[in-house]
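Good morning C.,

I know you're traveling, so I'll keep this short. The sequence:
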Amino acid sequence: MTMTTDACMAEEMTYEAQIRVTRNKEKKKIASSREYGGDSSHIIYKSGIPTLRASAHRVKARAKNRKHNPKPLDRNGSETGTTWIPEEVQEERVFSYDTDQCDIKGAVINLLRDCDPEVVGYFETTTQPIDQESSSSASEEPALRLEDFRVPVSSVWRTVNGGSCEAAQKYLSDRVAMNANFLEIFDTFVTEVVLPHLKGRLVACGALEDDSIPCSFYYQRPPTLRLQPGPGWAKVRPHNDVEYGHQNGELNMWLPLTDRTLTGVDLWSETSCKKGDYHPIVANIGEVISWHGSSRKHYVNPNATVNTRVSLDFRIGVEGYYDPLWEMQGTTDDHTRKKVDI
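The tokens, ready to paste straight into the viewer:
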């Protein structure tokens, strides 16, 4: 029995559709399995996801349906009537810390070295350390540099595009949260370096009468670790953290762990809310950027180099301006906090 013309055409169209689907799946498979350096194009990381990061917010509701009404309390339990930390504290600052006392970079290197190379990545060893002090003799293992960490292409592709970004992000988040050595060094860094600096600024602007008065701080723990491989075209879009459920009673801290002269990547921010005057906040290894990311839009530029950019960031809520019990409707995966009185 011969097929009609219409039936033949329908079968041919179905066959062509199946071929297109197969080809698209194969393209996604190739894209997600491509290793670093395996692409003939200059742009290796073509995904719209510029960074692999530990921890993330997911917004589940439309902005118009969300609330932003935290109610901070003072030490006596009374509402303070404000959610904004003092303007003087909101101003961006760059301050230094002793990398020998708080070897955050070394802790991150050890953390990444213990991760699954097929999920998070691996180190390409180098015989050219960044500085003289980190050089090793011929009998020692080559120095490890964060700039030489290679992230699998599939780990910065979303699942819908054939990648494994979400799984890699969860894996990295879990590794950071479970690494006791890293968290111990991080806690020391926060309590002995960052919080005394922040408290000093509160005293200087009159928010605290003097340094002897105790103040409660709520810092994000674990912090967010970000890996931005390159060469890539994508950048983090300009945003402020209020969009993701953070409060104006928080202050952001951002630590570069790689050499900005090797990656060409900086943190860019407005000087004040809705100003739109984006500028790079220049900081090097051993320095911390402090700025009000809740109100000021910020982003990082694309990484056009073969060197990976690595940074650590977290937020600190200040007593009297921050409500530790409040959560914005429509968000999940909010960062956990640790309370410290100093």
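Safe travels,
E.
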